[in-house]
Specification:
Layout lengths: L9 H50 L5 H85 L1
Protein backbone atom coordinates (compact mmCIF):
# COMPACT_ATOMS: atom_id res chain seq x y z
CA UNK A 1 0.00 0.00 0.00
CA UNK A 2 1.30 3.43 -0.92
CA UNK A 3 2.54 5.65 1.84
CA UNK A 4 0.58 8.86 2.37
CA UNK A 5 2.28 12.27 2.52
CA UNK A 6 2.61 13.60 6.06
CA UNK A 7 3.80 17.15 6.67
CA UNK A 8 5.59 17.44 10.00
CA UNK A 9 4.70 21.11 10.48
CA UNK A 10 0.94 20.71 9.93
CA UNK A 11 0.24 21.63 13.56
CA UNK A 12 2.24 24.83 13.26
CA UNK A 13 0.55 25.63 9.95
CA UNK A 14 -2.89 25.25 11.53
CA UNK A 15 -1.91 27.49 14.44
CA UNK A 16 -0.64 30.18 12.06
CA UNK A 17 -3.78 29.92 9.90
CA UNK A 18 -5.93 30.23 13.03
CA UNK A 19 -3.98 33.33 14.06
CA UNK A 20 -4.56 34.82 10.59
CA UNK A 21 -8.31 34.13 10.82
CA UNK A 22 -8.44 35.66 14.31
CA UNK A 23 -6.75 38.82 13.06
CA UNK A 24 -9.23 39.01 10.17
CA UNK A 25 -12.10 38.79 12.65
CA UNK A 26 -10.54 41.54 14.76
CA UNK A 27 -10.19 43.68 11.63
CA UNK A 28 -13.88 43.15 10.92
CA UNK A 29 -14.77 44.28 14.44
CA UNK A 30 -12.59 47.39 14.10
CA UNK A 31 -14.22 48.24 10.76
CA UNK A 32 -17.63 47.84 12.37
CA UNK A 33 -16.62 50.21 15.18
CA UNK A 34 -15.25 52.70 12.63
CA UNK A 35 -18.55 52.71 10.75
CA UNK A 36 -20.47 53.20 14.01
CA UNK A 37 -18.24 56.15 14.93
CA UNK A 38 -18.75 57.70 11.48
CA UNK A 39 -22.51 57.26 11.82
CA UNK A 40 -22.46 58.91 15.27
CA UNK A 41 -20.47 61.84 13.90
CA UNK A 42 -22.92 62.25 11.02
CA UNK A 43 -25.86 62.05 13.46
CA UNK A 44 -24.31 64.73 15.68
CA UNK A 45 -23.82 66.99 12.66
CA UNK A 46 -27.40 66.39 11.58
CA UNK A 47 -28.65 67.20 15.11
CA UNK A 48 -26.70 70.47 15.10
CA UNK A 49 -28.20 71.50 11.75
CA UNK A 50 -31.71 70.63 12.92
CA UNK A 51 -31.15 72.55 16.15
CA UNK A 52 -30.15 75.68 14.22
CA UNK A 53 -33.29 75.38 12.11
CA UNK A 54 -35.46 74.87 15.20
CA UNK A 55 -33.79 77.83 16.92
CA UNK A 56 -34.55 80.12 13.98
CA UNK A 57 -38.17 79.00 13.95
CA UNK A 58 -38.41 79.35 17.72
CA UNK A 59 -36.86 82.84 17.85
CA UNK A 60 -39.37 84.20 15.35
CA UNK A 61 -42.11 83.60 17.93
CA UNK A 62 -42.30 85.05 21.45
CA UNK A 63 -40.70 82.60 23.92
CA UNK A 64 -39.38 82.25 27.44
CA UNK A 65 -35.71 83.01 28.17
CA UNK A 66 -35.02 79.49 29.40
CA UNK A 67 -35.95 77.99 26.08
CA UNK A 68 -33.62 80.37 24.25
CA UNK A 69 -30.73 79.21 26.49
CA UNK A 70 -31.38 75.59 25.59
CA UNK A 71 -30.23 75.84 21.99
CA UNK A 72 -26.59 76.97 22.54
CA UNK A 73 -26.12 74.38 25.30
CA UNK A 74 -27.53 71.61 23.17
CA UNK A 75 -25.39 72.61 20.18
CA UNK A 76 -22.28 72.69 22.37
CA UNK A 77 -23.05 69.24 23.77
CA UNK A 78 -23.47 67.82 20.26
CA UNK A 79 -20.19 69.42 19.14
CA UNK A 80 -18.44 67.91 22.16
CA UNK A 81 -19.93 64.52 21.29
CA UNK A 82 -18.74 64.99 17.71
CA UNK A 83 -15.17 65.77 18.87
CA UNK A 84 -15.16 62.74 21.15
CA UNK A 85 -16.30 60.51 18.28
CA UNK A 86 -13.67 62.00 15.97
CA UNK A 87 -10.98 61.14 18.56
CA UNK A 88 -12.37 57.62 18.81
CA UNK A 89 -12.40 57.38 15.02
CA UNK A 90 -8.76 58.49 14.85
CA UNK A 91 -7.70 55.88 17.42
CA UNK A 92 -9.71 53.19 15.61
CA UNK A 93 -8.01 54.07 12.32
CA UNK A 94 -4.60 53.73 13.98
CA UNK A 95 -5.65 50.41 15.50
CA UNK A 96 -6.85 49.31 12.05
CA UNK A 97 -3.50 50.17 10.45
CA UNK A 98 -1.65 48.20 13.15
CA UNK A 99 -3.90 45.18 12.56
CA UNK A 100 -3.28 45.42 8.81
CA UNK A 101 0.47 45.18 9.48
CA UNK A 102 -0.12 42.29 11.87
CA UNK A 103 -2.27 40.54 9.25
CA UNK A 104 0.41 40.99 6.60
CA UNK A 105 2.98 39.43 8.91
CA UNK A 106 0.65 36.51 9.76
CA UNK A 107 -0.09 35.92 6.07
CA UNK A 108 3.65 35.89 5.37
CA UNK A 109 4.24 33.30 8.09
CA UNK A 110 1.47 31.10 6.71
CA UNK A 111 2.77 31.48 3.16
CA UNK A 112 6.29 30.43 4.15
CA UNK A 113 5.07 27.25 5.81
CA UNK A 114 2.59 26.58 3.00
CA UNK A 115 5.37 26.91 0.40
CA UNK A 116 7.54 24.54 2.42
CA UNK A 117 4.67 22.06 2.55
CA UNK A 118 4.13 22.31 -1.21
CA UNK A 119 7.84 21.79 -1.84
CA UNK A 120 8.00 18.75 0.42
CA UNK A 121 4.84 17.28 -1.08
CA UNK A 122 6.22 17.72 -4.60
CA UNK A 123 9.44 16.02 -3.52
CA UNK A 124 7.46 13.18 -1.91
CA UNK A 125 5.38 12.72 -5.08
CA UNK A 126 8.53 12.59 -7.23
CA UNK A 127 10.06 9.92 -5.00
CA UNK A 128 6.83 7.91 -5.06
CA UNK A 129 6.58 8.16 -8.85
CA UNK A 130 10.23 7.14 -9.16
CA UNK A 131 9.65 4.06 -6.98
CA UNK A 132 6.52 3.23 -8.93
CA UNK A 133 8.41 3.50 -12.22
CA UNK A 134 11.25 1.35 -10.86
CA UNK A 135 8.72 -1.34 -9.90
CA UNK A 136 7.18 -1.21 -13.37
CA UNK A 137 10.63 -1.45 -14.99
CA UNK A 138 11.57 -4.37 -12.76
CA UNK A 139 8.34 -6.21 -13.62
CA UNK A 140 8.91 -5.55 -17.31
CA UNK A 141 12.46 -6.95 -17.09
CA UNK A 142 11.22 -10.04 -15.25
CA UNK A 143 8.48 -10.54 -17.85
CA UNK A 144 10.97 -10.26 -20.74
CA UNK A 145 13.35 -12.60 -18.98
CA UNK A 146 10.59 -15.22 -18.62
CA UNK A 147 9.63 -14.82 -22.28
CA UNK A 148 13.23 -15.35 -23.35
CA UNK A 149 13.42 -18.61 -21.32
CA UNK A 150 10.27 -20.01 -22.83
Amino acid sequence: MAQKFKFKLDGLLKVREFKEKRIKLELGEILKEIEEAKATIAKAQQDIEECYEAQEAFVSEPAAGRMVQFFPQYIQSRRDEQKIQENILYSLNRKYQEKIKELAQAKGEVKVIDNLKDKQQLEFNKKREKKFQENIDELTIIKKHRENKV
